[in-house]
Design brief:
The complex is a heterodimer of chains A (127) and B (804). In chain A, 76% of the residues lie in helices and 0% in strands. By secondary structure, chain A is mainly alpha-helical. Classes of the chains: A mainly alpha (127), B alpha/beta (804). Chains A and B meet through helix 1, helix 2, helix 4 and helix 5 of A and helix 1, helix 2, helix 3 and helix 16 of B.
């Protein structure tokens, strides 16, 4: 009875629950990297280091403020770009992991049988 | 049992039992699975095909663990099924047999978290029901039916609390049980909702992400080094208060912030939760739902630390400079809402405060920066007067004190923090008592802060070192104020109350009726049958001087209120003009001697209003509410409770009439009513004022035998003073009569008696001691001649009487 219950759950509600949990994990990763937001603000000044500094009106100070902002934007673009790339890689890997897990899920109950067959065959990997 | 009511064989019930059976083994099974895989790998590396078998079979325990974690540990309710097994909490369902009896239910309740929650928090659970429940499984159906009906009011869930309430409803003596525990069915319902909420909060916290909004959330916003130095971000602080208590105000804050910039003034009394409201806002903005405008998502609320700013700004203008820099950063950053907590500190010069309204007013008026200022009600009025433009530029959000229901809900959410800090457990009854008593005795703070403050104090009085009960709260109040809050409990106190008249008569003679009405009032108060919304007793003592009116008040203070220092005495001849009303209700900070301030400090006392007839009518009108409802509103609008005081007013009005009645041979009982009517018709007191007193007692002049007893009483006191010299004085009967004769004055009553007796006795003893006629251990008997020698002729006695 217990075993029947386990197998029934595994291929029914268990499978759905696994999807739900994987989906939740995936969404959290998406939110963590917030790739869309990073892309939208790719060239915004990073932490707006000089955002408030409008200079004193002279050409030198205006140029200095412009230069500061430019540096800030470059730093921002670099940090965000790097994070976007890292995020895309992690998300892709996670998607792959989810796909593997979800596919592997179907074969788990069969593993005892597979193990038994492999044992009977007697093959072992040689280094 | 009817299967449509409880189906032990249902899938959910079966799964619950699987879960229960597995609970203790989950860790072992997990380790077994991991061990099989590791051993299998080792075996394969060692060239043993047996390893495949181990790895393959490791899948089975791994699947079981997965099943337990994903489903069996907390089975969801089955909405489609109407039987109780479909909606009962798994932890209880898993423990039940096929035909559970009420007694079995009771036993099982104590094995569940929900059951223990009620056992500890309410003092009602399996332990009690085990003793009273029947063994008959047929009786369980009624409980389950009742539980399903209760569950329909709390989201359809049958938790252990629901079963407990259902079992209470089946009890034939449920009112007695609930009364004994100071609970009602509504309280148990509140407990069920409380437990469900804690459960939900625990589940919710598991799912929350640590960095809402993502890793790059704040990268586009400004760098805020000064703000970080002088403020603290509330974004991740969390909050102890309940969202549903201040939902409207949080919504108002979000609406105002969402519609543009500007400054919001959160105005309310101390303790209403202004700061907590800002924390809730910060929390909501950090974990926004769809009701929050997109522009406010992940905005950070920074609370400025006033003390840090003020200590850093030693030089003139430095504070303005720091605040200017902070606000400049906040404006440039674009994701900051600046909060000035206790903003009044920035609008007044003084110790620990500075006036920078010149800097803040234009910023507030411009309305470009999002700011929140929490301000005390009184201070806001002051700021409005001082800088109307500033006050008018703010959007005001008024925070009112919470009512009982909301206060309890706030306390429910607050106590886990308190319990963690104090390592105590608070009972639900303690929360209710904290609300009730703090409302009456804790001043200067409003609800829910009022109750929280008392609850924190109550932790010191935990029973058995751990459990904070209603009694602990009462003890905390008694410790803080000296008030006796509950009914008389100890044998000693019961004995004292029953013999109160005798105790009072140990220090005052005669006036049996007055003593008896006062004693009755106290007995009513301490047995819990009095009206709780009035003073313990209000009495008007009428009679000539020196008959014991004030003495009775003093005796009462000493015998019952713990000492003569617990008497608050006001000479009403100092309240003869309408302006004197202000002195009755003045704030303690301005006049520590005002009636309101004294009672606020010492609520458990005798209030003695001497010579009441001399007070101005405006003063008497002010006292009406005090006599009627037991409260006096002070100059700051706070209700000062007189509900634990005995109010005694004394008056000499009509004293000559009393003497006249006595001389004409009337007894007190014969003329008392007529006399009071004369006072009313003579316009000395208004009838509506006299009607406010519980009792009006006329004191008759003391008779000769009573005066002799007064002499004995005074001699007792003198002997007490001479105890150090080990000398005892006795006075012959004729000397006593002589003392009465000389000590009694028709105008002053027995008042000069003490002076006369003391002078006569002490002078004689002094002479005897100096002449070595009296030695330690001797008993001196004073004769009439000796007393006469001291008091001398009539004239000398009169001089002593008049205090010369």
């Amino acid at each position: 009875m217990f075993l029947v219950g386990l197998i029934t759950w595994w291929y029914g509600r268990g499978w759905i629950e696994q999807w739900r949990r994987n989906g939740g994990m995936f969404m959290r990763t998406l939110e963590f990297f917030s790739v869309g937001q990073l892309a939208a603000t790719l060239f915004s000044p990073f932490r707006q280091i000089s955002a408030g500094n409008r200079g004193n009106g002279s050409f030198a100070s205006a140029f200095s403020a412009f230069f500061d902002r430019l540096i800030s934007r470059i730093v921002g673009a670099f940090v965000r770009g790097f994070t976007i790339i890292a995020g895309v890689i992690v998300i892709a890997l996670q998607a792959l992991y989810v796909a593997v897990i979800m596919a592997f899920w179907w074969f788990v109950p069969l593993l005892p049988l597979v193990g038994f067959v492999a044992f009977m065959i007697g093959w072992v990997p040689r280094g | 049992m009817d299967k449509t009511l409880f189906n032990w064989h249902s899938r959910r019930a079966r799964l619950a039992r699987y879960g229960h059976a597995l609970r203790a083994w989950v860790l072992v099974i997990t380790i077994l699975s991991a061990a099989l895989i590791i051993l299998g790998i080792f075996a394969l590396v060692a060239g043993l095909a047996f390893g495949w078998l181990l790895i393959g079979f490791a899948a089975l325990p791994a699947m079981v663990v997965q099943w337990y974690n994903y489903e069996l540990s907390a089975l969801p309710n089955e909405k489609s099924n109407s039987s109780i097994d479909a909606v009962m909490d798994t932890e209880l369902l898993s423990l039940l047999s096929q035909n559970p009896s009420p007694k079995e239910l009771a036993v099982r309740l104590n094995e569940t978290n929900g059951g223990l929650f009620f056992e500890v928090r309410f003092g009602l659970g399996g332990g009690f029901f085990k003793e009273v429940a029947t063994d008959n499984p047929a009786d369980t159906a009624a409980i389950f039916n009742e539980a399903l009906s209760i569950a329909s009011q709390v989201g359809g869930r049958v938790s252990p609390g629901v079963i407990i309430l259902a079992m209470v409803r089946q009890l034939p003596m449920k009112q007695t049980v609930l009364g004994h525990l100071q609970l009602s069915e509504d309280d148990l319902m509140t407990g069920i909702i409380w437990y469900h909420r804690l459960h939900e909060l625990a589940n919710k916290s598991k799912k929350q992400t640590k960095q809402p909004g993502g890793v790059g959330r704040d990268w586009s916003f400004g760098w805020i080094p000064t703000l970080q130095r002088f403020g603290v971000s509330l974004a991740h602080g969390g909050t102890a208060s309940r969202n549903d208590v201040r939902t409207a105000q949080v919504g108002q804050l979000i609406g105002t912030l969402g519609s543009g910039g500007g400054t919001i003034g959160i105005i309310g009394r101390d303790g209403v939760g202004k700061t907590e409201l800002v924390r809730e806002l910060a929390n909501t903005l950090m974990r926004p739902d769809k009701s929050v405008p997109r522009g406010l998502w992940y905005q950070q609320v920074f609370m400025l630390d006033a003390s840090r700013i003020l200590s850093a700004g030693n030089e003139r203008g430095a504070v303005e400079q720091i605040v200017g820099a902070i606000l400049g950063e906040a404006y440039a950053a674009k994701n900051i809402i600046v909060c000035f907590d206790n903003a009044e500190l920035f609008f007044q010069d003084g110790v620990g405060s500075v006036d920078i309204s010149n800097l803040l007013t234009p910023i507030v008026e411009a309305g470009r920066l999002r700011m929140i200022m929490t301000i005390d009600e009184q201070n806001f009025l002051r700021i409005s007067k001082q800088a109307p433009a500033l006050a008018n530029s703010m959007t005001r959000v008024i925070v009112q004190p919470t009512d009982e229901k909301d206060t309890i809900r706030v306390l429910e959410d607050h106590i886990p923090f308190l319990e963690y800090k104090r390592k105590n457990t608070f009972m639900y009854q303690a929360l209710k008592e904290a609300y009730r008593l703090s409302q009456r005795y804790v001043y200067d703070v409003s609800m829910p802060g009022q109750a929280i403050r008392l609850l924190e104090q109550s932790a010191e009085h935990a029973e058995g070192g751990k459990l904070v009960s209603a009694r602990s709260v009462a003890q905390a109040i008694e410790h803080m104020t000296g008030v006796k809050t509950g009914a008389a409990a100890g044998d000693e106190e019961r004995e004292m109350l029953l013999n109160l008249e005798a105790r009072i008569h140990e220090r005052m003679i005669g006036q049996e009726r007055a003593v008896s009405v006062v004693a009755d009032a106290l007995r009513r108060a301490r047995s819990g049958v009095r009206n709780q919304n009035r003073p313990v007793g209000t009495f008007l003592f009428l009679g000539p001087t020196g008959v014991g009116k004030t003495e009775l008040a003093k005796s009462l203070a000493e015998v019952y209120f713990g000492g003569e220092q617990n008497i608050i005495r006001l000479d009403m001849n100092e309240f003869v003009s309408p302006d004197d009303v202000a002195r009755l209700i003045a704030d303690g900070a301005d006049d520590a001697g005002s009636l309101a301030a004294q009672v606020m400090k010492q609520p458990f006392s005798v209030v003695l209003l001497d010579e009441l007839e001399k007070a101005h009518s405006s003063v008497l009108t002010t006292l009406l509410q005090l006599l009627d409802e037991g409260v006096l509103r002070d100059v700051r609008g706070r209700e000062v409770s007189f509900r634990d005081t005995v109010v005694i007013a004394t008056s000499n009005a009509g004293a000559s009439r009393i003497q006249e009645y006595i001389q004409r041979g009337y007894t007190l009982q014969q003329f008392e009513e007529t006399f009071i009517n004369e006072l009313i018709s003579g316009h000395i007191f208004h009838p509506e004022f006299l009607n406010r007193f519980d009792e009006m007692v006329v004191f008759s002049p003391l008779s000769k035998p009573e005066l002799l007893q007064v002499v004995d009483l005074i001699l007792k006191g003198v002997n007490k003073n001479l105890a150090e010299q080990q000398i005892t004085i006795s006075v012959t009967p004729d000397a006593k009569e002589y003392l009465v004769e000389r000590g009694y004055d028709p105008r002053l009553g027995a008042r000069p008696m003490r002076r006369v007796v003391q002078r006569a006795v002490e002078s004689t003893v002094a002479k005897l001691l100096l002449s070595n006629a009296a030695t330690p251990g001797s008993v001196i008997e004073l004769t009439k001649e000796q007393v006469e020698a001291v008091l001398g002729p009539e004239q000398q006695a009169q001089a002593i009487i008049s205090g010369q």
